[in-house]
Structures are given as C-alpha cells and as structure tokens.
Amino acid sequence: NVPIFMCYNRNFSKYIRLANDFLASPSAPQGCALTLGRNDCFNTSESLDECFERNAEGMVKNMLCHEILTLVTYNGLTVDSIAEVVADQAYTHQETRNG
Asked: In terms of pTM, does the model score above 0.70?
C-alpha cells in the first residue's frame, strides 16, 4: 500500500539528452555542470494567482514533478543521492498567493 505518483518527461527531454551528451564529450570544458531551471509565463501577480487557483495541489506536485522525473530518468537522481536541498536565496521568496 504505497502511493504511486506518475508524471511524464516534459518536451525538453531531448535537450537534457543533448546536454548530457555534450557534458560527456571531450569538447566539454573542464568542470561543466548541468543546471536545470524552469521559466514559465507567470510574470504577473494575476497570472501567478491563476496558476495556484488552477493547481491548488502546489507547484512541486503539479509542475516540478516533471523536472524531477527528467533528472531521475537521465541523470540518475535517487532519494539516496540527495544529500541536501538548498534554496537559492537570490531567486527565492515566500508569498501568500490566491488559490
């Protein structure tokens, strides 16, 4: 009786594969790393409120799950491989939104 959550690799999976191929190639500069970010069209208070009204379960469960699955699929992410999760304070702030 373990809950299972399914999601799909987003349409950028092709680009993750290409980036991983580049990072594994001899032409990749020493010390290169893959940084996976997310940019959405929620650039106004109204659009962000609408997002939370439509996705009341939250952004991690509804949206970020796709990026996490991509990391699991293409970069070997496992629960055991996560030592720490640190929010980038320059890009992070807490708000109370509608929804």
From this structure: no
Q: Residue 31 and residue 23: Cα distance in Å, rounded? A: 9
Q: What is the pLDDT along the chain (99 residues), one digit of tens a residue?
A: 776 666 566 667 788 888 889 999 999 999 888 887 777 777 788 888 888 888 877 777 777 777 888 888 888 899 999 999 888 889 887 888 887
Vertex 18, ends 26 and 90: CA angle to 5°? 95
> Which DSSP string do the residues of 9-78 spell out, in sequence order?
--TTHHHHHHHHHHHHSTTSPTT---------S--SHHHHHHHHHH-TT-HIIIIIHHHHHHHHHHH---
